[in-house]
Amino acid sequence: METTTHIVSLVVLSGFLLALIFGAVAQRTDFCTMGAVSDIVNMGDWSRMRMWLLAIAVAVAGANALDLAGLVDLSRSAYPGARWPWLAYLSGGFLFGVGMTLGSGCGSRSLVRLGGGNLKSLVVLLFLALSAQMTLRGLFSPAREFLSTLAVQFDQGQDLSWLLAVPLGIGKRSVQPWIAAAVALGLAVFVLRDRGFRTDYERVFAGTVIGLVIVGGWYVTGHIGFVAEDPETLQEAWLGTRTARPESFTFIGPAANTLELLQFWADKSMSLTFGVAVVLGTLAGSFALAAATRRFRWESFASGSDTRNHILGGVLMGFGGVTAMGCTIGQGITGISTLALGSILVFFSIIAGAAVTMKLQYRRMLHET
């Protein structure tokens, strides 16, 4: 028992430290997936999108290297399972994209903005966490369950390696290195072929570090937190995670778990987990960087409609993120690092939801003027 307690503490502390880095880097470089989509839609500028794609490339390469080395078993995570609830991925991702546009940023960006003094993000996070709780076990859960009923059942897993290996009649390990290398290299070439981005060392650094942080999360939960035989269950376990599986950075479920922990702190069954530590660490890292560089500024709502949009954005992100099993980080980087088909679908669904909302907002603005 003492050994498992030590492992849990190490997993939680490591998650917090990795998130400190994530929060500080995101605060410094304005790493924002909504902003990346907005820059493309409104200005044709791909710089921040390239930063996101570089993080994905690094995460894909690192996570699959850990898996192939036998240090982490990505197939035991929540992403590449054999069941592919395509409607939940599609609708949840789209609604999340709408929500993050209305809320001025996704869950991770809201934490970073809050660390810089943005009180609007506090409201977004509260409604996001509450909506996520309601989607997991409350009023919204029937809708989530309905959307999850339409699914494709694969023979093995939904990751690209299995999807190619099964028709060819070969083992997953035979194709995994090549697919991972092709995805990572293809993204890296696309990102770095742009000279303007290639010479923007701060953004190259940010994309690389954020990708490595995701890899670090996999290593911490999937290797350090793994025990072949839990003393309580006598089965293999991944300690310190809420899902009892290997996991890395994601923010919607952990935001709900953080709110629940704060609500029921005296309940002895509640405990800090890797995900909660990531939420708290991201906030702390952003605040530390903002304070150290004098970027901390109190900000609040400009109008009633501004308040309404941010509340609605938080609600949509909570529902959409739980339904799609992740957010721009949880599915868009962590999930894609496992090469899961569902994560790729969510990635494009989020972008579509955000882009459509931005276009509608722009048309409305033109109509009002």
Overview of the molecule:
The chain has 369 residues and is mostly helical. The chain has one domain. It is 69% helix and 2% strand. The protein contains 16 helices and 4 strands. It has a two-stranded antiparallel sheet. It is globular. The mean pLDDT is 94.
Outline of the structure:
With 369 residues, the chain is an all-alpha fold.
Keywords:
globular, single chain, 16 helices, 2% strand, 69% helix
* Oligomeric state of the chains in view: single chain
Q: How helix-rich are the residues, as a percent range?
A: 55-70%
Order of helices and strands: HHHEHHHHEHHHHEEHHHHH
What fraction strand? Answer: under 5%
Based on Cα principal axes, name the global outline. globular
- Sheet having the most strands: 2 strands, antiparallel
Give me the number of helical elements.
16
The structural class is mainly alpha
Widest beta sheet: strand line-up:
1-2
Number of strands: 4
- Output the radius of gyration: 20 Å
Mean model confidence by pLDDT:
94
Poorly predicted runs are none
**Count of discrete structural domains:** 1
Topology:
Elements: H1 2-29, H2 33-43, H3 47-68, E1 83-84, H4 86-102, H5 107-115, H6 119-137, H7 141-147, E2 152-153, H8 160-168, H9 172-192, H10 195-198, H11 201-224, E3 226-227, E4 237-238, H12 252-263, H13 274-292, H14 304-323, H15 330-335, H16 341-368
Antiparallel strand pairs: 1-2, 3-4
Helix pairs in contact: 1-5, 1-11, 1-13, 2-3, 2-16, 3-9, 3-11, 4-14, 4-16, 5-6, 5-13, 6-7, 6-12, 6-14, 8-9, 12-13
